[in-house]
Amino acid sequence: MEVTEETVARAATGDLFDPLGVTWTRVSPKLAAARLTVTAISLLPFLAATVLLAVLVDAAWLWVFPAAVAALGLWIGLLVPRQVGALAYAERADDLLVRRGILFRQLVVVPYGRMQYVDVTAGPLARRFGIASVQLHTASPSTTASIEGLPPQEAARLRDRLASRGEARLAGL
C-alpha cells in the first residue's frame, strides 16, 4: 500500500478502523431484533420474580429491584442497535476486514491465504429472524473472525467466495 499524505493524516487523527478505499458492508438489522429477543427472554423472568416479590412482601423498598431490571433492559435496548450498526465487513483483494465495537473498537484483518475453513451457522432463533453467521478459521485460534447477522443468501455467497479465494491464495504458497 502506498503511503500518501491522506493516509498519514488519517492515521494522525486516530481513525485506524476505517482504512482508505474500503467499502464496508453492514450486517442485517434483524440481528438487533434477535439480540433484543434473547435479552427479553432472559430478563422477563427476573422482572416477573422481582415484581411478584415486591407485591407479596408489600415493602416499598423492594420495588428497587424491578426498577433495576427494567433499567437494565432499557439500557440494553438502547445499546444493542448501536452495536449492530457498528458491525461491518469488507472484502479486499488479499484479505477480509471485520469491524465491530462502539467503545472498544476492533478491526480484524484475515488474509485469504491464512484461512483454513469457513463455517456458516444458524441456530433456531437466527433462522426465525432470517439471519446466519459466517466464521473464518485460521491456523491461529486468536485470528478467527466471525460475521453475525447476514442474510442466508449473503452468508452462502460469502462462504463460497472466501473458500475459493482462500484456496487460490493457499495454492500459490
TrEMBL record:
Spans traversing the lipid bilayer: 36-55, 61-80
Keywords from the named record: Membrane, Transmembrane, Transmembrane helix
InterPro entries found in the cross-reference section: YdbS-like_PH
Pfam families: bPH_2 (PF03703)
Superkingdom of the organism of origin: Bacteria
Domain YdbS-like PH: 88-162
Name of the featured protein: Membrane-flanked domain protein
